[in-house]
User: Fold this.
Amino acid sequence: MSALTPVERGERRRQQRRQELIRWSVRILLVVLVFSLGVALGQAIQDNPNPGRTVTSDRTLHVPTAGNPGSTITP
Assistant:
């Protein structure tokens, strides 16, 4: 059985803390990434029009009735 010296124990603790910090950083990064993708998807769905929806546009044509009729045929 080998006992660790105080220096080795301190180094091992620092390594464990560093590894734990990296693990939590990766977890937090993944949560932020998934949340961002969810927000982006929600915005994309909200911005698109509903499928199958009919769009109707109305226009009024004004026909000139006074003055020269604009005929190109000469008698």
